[in-house]
Amino acid sequence: MKVINNPNKSPLASVERDQRVSEPGFGKYYTDNMVIAQWSEVDGWQDAELKAYGPLTLDPATMVFHYGQEVFEGMKAYSQPDGGISLFRPEANAKRFAKSAARIALPEMPVDFFVKTVEELVKQEKGWVPKKIGESLYLRPFLIATEVGLGVRPSNHATYVLIATPAAAYFNAAKAVTVWISTEYVRAALGGTGEAKCGGNYAASLLAQKQAAQEGCDQVAYIDAKERKWVEEMGGMNLYFIKGSGKDATIMTPKLTGTLLPGITRDSILTLAKDLGYKTEESMISIDQWRDGVKSGEITEIFACGTAAVISAVGAAKSAQGTWQTGDGKPGVITNEIRAALLAIQHGTAPDKHGWNKRVI
């Protein structure tokens, strides 16, 4: 399987493109091209095509509209000091994409084919990659069920699409966010789709996110569906709690129980924190432990992490039990250190001893 190049014959003028890249926002502008590949139960995966970005034409009875068979990924391409471009751990995204697809009864895309589509689009759209530290070309691969029919069963046809958008930081790194701890809604239950990166998980989070906004919060933090007390993750990010200070601090994140998304940034931070000399821990933390740990000073910093946000400090939490602030409510020293160290690797200004970066250009 290969990627057939049939790029946009009328790309955006470089002056206008550069203007957009200089002030990218997040998901505000899209590149000139995209990649599409088809799969069928009979023929399997076909060659992908790199073509002009544009609308998709789908029959109203296309299965994705009715039964929600859809998965996606989020990943980034980063500028390098010598003018090159690298992807950050693309094979990890490819493997998670395949695992998510399998859970939703969609076809698994081969890892090498997935990575090839991403590399080809990045090469074509190199002019769209921002050069500032903390900015990137955000890549959104997704897979949808495209059989036409209303029978409730796995689709026998699927369409893979890859689009890209220049992206600034999702949150202001200099400002900590406030989270609403939802005790009314849950994100996922054991045996469900919590480990899959599928649209349904995010759709189910929107009502709680709306509630968070009404409470003056930026994001939602979810608790487990069974005991309704263990902290799991935020709507689109994993959480980290820092206990103690200095090099004696322990960097802790809720353990993967089958209901949390296994974040690639989360996994990278576990390794990176050890490289920086910190102890790491994957365990359970309850709402009460969160509240009491912050009040006693045992928990000194909290941050959320994900591809889009990278690392964002959590300054305060609100819930039906009250409101409590972490430290002085601002991004902490260790949070900033980990964020800077991760970005340095991604942008090629620090050694990449784990081989996370994949050079494209």
Automatic annotation (TrEMBL):
Keyword Amino-acid biosynthesis in record: yes
SUPFAM superfamilies in UniProt: D-aminoacid aminotransferase-like PLP-dependent enzymes
Protein family (similarity comment): Belongs to the class-IV pyridoxal-phosphate-dependent aminotransferase family.
Source organism: freshwater metagenome
Protein name: Unannotated protein
Lineage of the species this protein comes from: unclassified sequences, metagenomes, ecological metagenomes
Pfam families: Aminotran_4 (PF01063)
One GO term (biological process): branched-chain amino acid biosynthetic process
Keyword set, alphabetical order: Amino-acid biosynthesis, Aminotransferase, Branched-chain amino acid biosynthesis, Pyridoxal phosphate, Transferase
UniProt cofactor(s): pyridoxal 5'-phosphate
Molecular function GO terms recorded: branched-chain-amino-acid transaminase activity
